[in-house]
C-alpha cells in the first residue's frame, strides 16, 4: 500500500480524494491544515505528499520547506485554485514533483501520483560498499555518510548514488541526460528539477574543500572536478 499525506482544508474535497485514492490501493492520512500535516509527517513515514497551497496555520509552500528538512527525498505535489505563473515557479523551485490546478479529475491525480512514485522510489545505480577518499572527505556509499574529520554528513540513498556516479566519472563533462538516466532512471522535466536540487546540496556538502568543484555548463551538463592530488 502506498502511503499518502494529503493536506487539504476543504473537508468535503479531501474526503472525495481520500475515498478515490483508497480505491486505487493508497493509504491516505488527511490533515486539515499545514500544522496538522507537519505533525503527521513527524510521526509517520509516507511515500508521497499532496499539499493544497492555500491552507490555514501553515501554507503549502512553507509546509513543503519544513518537510524537505526532515526528508529531502520525499516527493510532493501541490494542489491550488490559483493559476499564477509565479506560484507554479515557486512550487517547482522548492522541488515539487508536480503542480495541479483545481478543478481536476481524481483519476488524473491517481495517474500523476503513480508516475511520480515509479520515478522516485528507485535508485537506478547500485551502491558500492567500502569507503572512498574524495579530497578531505571520506565517502561511504554503503553507510550513506560523508565525513570530514569528526563531522559526519548523513546522506540519502539518492545523494549517495549521485556522489558515487559523479566520482566514478570525475573530471569528465557529463550530459544532464546521462546523469538523470543513471541515477533517476529517466530524463523528464521533474527529474531534472529534482537533480538541480540535489546538485545544490552536494555543492554545500563539498564546500570546505576548494580542490573539489561541481561546475555546470549551461544547456549541456556538469563536471565533477578534482585536482590531481585528490585522484585515487
What do you see in this structure?
The structure is a single chain. With 232 residues, the chain is α/β, with parallel strands linked by helices. 41% of the residues lie in helices and 25% in strands. The strands form three sheets. Strands 2-1-3-4-5 form a five-stranded parallel beta sheet, sandwiched between helices. It has a four-stranded antiparallel beta sheet with strand order 6-7-8-9, with no helix packed on it. Strand 8 and strand 9 form a beta hairpin. Helix 2 packs parallel to helix 3. The longest helix has 17 residues. It is elongated. The mean pLDDT is 86.
Which features does this protein show?
4-stranded antiparallel sheet, alpha/beta, single chain, 25% strand, 232 residues
> Structural class, from helix and strand content?
alpha/beta
Fraction of residues in β-strands: 15-25%
The percentage helix is: 40-55%
Calculate the mean pLDDT score and round it: 86
Order of strands, main sheet, comes to: 2-1-3-4-5
Secondary structure tally: strands: 12
Poorly predicted sequence stretches spanning 5 or more consecutive residues: none
Q: Please describe the biggest sheet, giving its number of strands, its sense, and whether it closes into a barrel.
A: 5 strands, parallel
Counted by DSSP, the helix tally is 8
Sum up the overall morphology in one term: elongated
Element order: H for helix, E for strand: EHEHEHEHEHEEEEHEHHEE
Radius of gyration: 19 Å
The end-to-end distance, rounded to whole angstroms, is 44 Å
